[in-house]
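Fold this complex.
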Amino acid sequence: MPTTAPSDPVQGLAAYSEVTASEASLRRFLHGLPGVDQVGAEARATGLGTRSIKTTSKAWALDLAIRMVDLTTLEGQDTPGKVRALASKALRPDPADPGCPSVAAVCVYGDMVGEVKAVVGDRVNVAAVATAFPSGRASMAIKLADTRDAVAAGADEIDMVIDRGAFLAGHYLQVFEEIVAVRDACARPDGSHAHLKVIFETGELQTYDNVRRASWLAMLAGSDFIKTSTGKVQPAATLPVTLVMLEAVRDFREATGVQIGVKPAGGIRTAKDAIKYLVMVNEIAGDDWLDPDWFRFGASTLLNDLLMQRTKMTTGRYSGPDYFTLD
Amino acid sequence: MARIDVRKTYKLYIGGAFPRSESGHSYEVTDSLGKFVANAALASRKDVRDAVVAARKAFGGWSARTAYNRGQVLYRIAEVMEDRRPQFEEAVKQSEGGTAAAARAQVDAAVDRLVWYAGWADKLAQVVGNANPVAGPFFNHSAPEPTGLVGVLAPQSSSLLGLVSVVAPVVVTGNTAVVVSSYDRPLPAVTFAEVLATSDVPGGVINILTGDAAALGPWLAAHMDVNAIDLAGVAGSTELATSLEVAAADNLKRVRRAPAAEPDWSADPGIGAMTAFVETKTVWHPIGI
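Structure:
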């Protein structure tokens, strides 16, 4: 691994072309990454979670957290009406307060992209899950068709799942090539490409070492964001897992000059939790990541709690769930 | 050899558990002569917040129970209180002073009051509900439904009978309660919480905070997720009571107003304390088709 940060991102990534050239070299590189100190990572995450964020800092953090939310609905029972209602909420989370910012994106299944787009236009991004979400068990042709469909329907961001089976079996190059292929499928006719988020499903990766390896693998393959979970598996996002991923994006930028975003998803339900994550982003990765372009929350119920806390800050009295929509 | 005193620091009762105050504060509780008895947790606004969340969570299940079942649960509280008579008598005597006989009489009255309200569980609908004669082919009837989450400022002087007399009528109809106990005399309320924890009351249905009603009242009165408030605990403080009523108006809380002075709790309570916290639901059901 190069020890100093190259000034040119292209050159920085090029330094790793040998690493990804063969199964053996990729394995050598990933297994050569320093191991994660599990106890240390958990203690550090717990320690950062005890910081007290109050008054103006809290107000700022709540607004930032709202702007970072990928408002998500990924249910078999999603109807077009429900998705449109969610899209309206994404635009104006708190109709009673015009000062409340919009969320970052609405995250839906690929076939609902059109419904969301019709409501939000270009004001909020539309993210679509693809590649046989959430299990990732389908042939490559189907995964790519899934991705192209969503991009053609107007998705701004694609959330893909990796093949955890292949990753756990040690077929790293296969996973790498899948991510590269999906990234190519994200290309639009005009030359731009939909942002690619790679979901690891950290709850199935067993160890923090694997999380670190998966992070580097996805970043080398050209993902724009790395994301913890689908939200369908417990445990979903946890503070220590996100900490390991934040360390990975920090180290990756140091090594290559390329900045990658992080998205914890699933299991973040309270404003208090969200603020713990923000503290960690600032302390581990740095304040360059404190921006909706570089850090996101995949959540649905979190937004209501953020709004309730925000209302408490502005009105000085506690609010209740009766005053916010259920989804 | 003299035994070393076990000095107790009691905790709050929220959601069926006994947490410390979020603030970490506690205060000294003295007996009627000013001698130290124990420490009690001093609840803060964040404990109010947590208690409201717990009470809201418990409301769905509690209000959906049959009235008969709620009556049984209240009766069970009375049974467990009866088992703890000596502890209650001691707590009442320490808190309020007076003779052992007076304390015993108050515990008797409190247990009887609970049994009395338990009996009302499946009878209130007969008394305040009605089959309404309407000019059309409808069977039309009205019945009481619980208001929701009720904040209760418990009486300051009557530490046990007063407490039971404001809490039992709230929960017997299916409401859940966040109760702020008497500030100077919290120990019977603490023992009552221990009774609740060991009887059949689901966690969160009754939450008991020991602390200052003047400090916690405004947060409870302004809380948008509280549906009603009983101001018995600020009886006599007209200005405070008025400000709480104003704060409660924001989300149209039902308010049971503070009396000018603390009433005689041993008097016949009537059903007013129950009907203050119910809504009337009227159903039109077509007939003759």
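The first helix of chain B runs from residue 45 to 64.
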